[in-house]
Amino acid sequence: MVPVVYVVLLFSIVAIVGVAQNYTNDIKIRKMSTVKRFEDLEVWKLARELCNEIFLLTDQTAFSRDFSLRNQINGSSGSEMDKIAKGFEQDGSREFIQFLSISKGSCGESRSQLYRALGCKYLPIDKLELLSQKTIDLGRKISNLMIYLRNSEIKGNKYKTVAQQQKQKEQ
């Protein structure tokens, strides 16, 4: 019998990494398909959506005049998506994990700044709760991707031999 915690974690990872089929202990496990562009990563897409929502929020009248907080929250929400992209482009899983960790930290930073905006009455509590939950969900998905990468045998393109890289280009 598989403990429920592991099943929940497994399904969280499955939701992130997407495709293929394998069966182990009657639980369907999906293998990560080859992702060639960071734009195809679900976590990057979610980070981009969150960044856009926060930008629209900060473009409102009162918030738009608080240059310091507006720039900080736009910077941290932008960092969430930018660090995912930068880590992916490093072509190594260790580096990618490191940048994912930074991106996850930016989720917490954005959430903290949302509370500051609430204190300044720049947003209602329901908007705070919605955006805060999105930062939590994104952080969780980033964590699950980090776990997947740590357990993966794939170490990145820069660790492949020239022959392996040439074969990959032909496919």
Core attributes:
171 residues; mainly alpha; de novo design (two linked rop proteins); two-stranded antiparallel ribbon
Structure notes:
- This protein has 171 residues and is mostly helical.
- The protein has two domains: 1-33, no CATH class; 38-170, 23S rRNA-intervening sequence (de novo design (two linked rop proteins)).
- The protein has seven helices and two strands.
- It has helices spanning 4-17, 42-58, 61-64, 67-89, 93-119, 125-151, 162-170; strands spanning 22-24, 27-29.
- It has a two-stranded antiparallel ribbon.
- Strand 1 and strand 2 form a beta hairpin.
- Helix 2 runs antiparallel to helix 4 (67-89).
- The longest helix is centred in the middle third of the chain and has 27 residues, at 93-119.
- The protein is elongated and about 60 Å long.
- Residues 1-30 have low confidence and may be disordered.
Largest sheet, strands/sense/barrel = 2 strands, antiparallel
Uncertain segments: 1-30
Q: What is the SS-derived class?
A: mainly alpha
CATH superfamily of the largest domain, by name, is 23S rRNA-intervening sequence
Overall pLDDT, averaged? 82
> In percent, how much strand structure appears in the residues?
under 5%
Choose one word for the global shape.
elongated
- Assembly state: single chain
Number of extended strands: 2
CATH fold name of the largest domain, please? de novo design (two linked rop proteins)
Strand order of the largest sheet: 1-2
CATH architectural type of the largest domain: Up-down Bundle
Distance from first to last alpha carbon = 40 Å
Question: Class of the largest domain, according to the CATH hierarchy?
Answer: Mainly Alpha
Helical run tally? 7
Percent of residues in helices comes to over 70%
The figure for the number of domains is 2
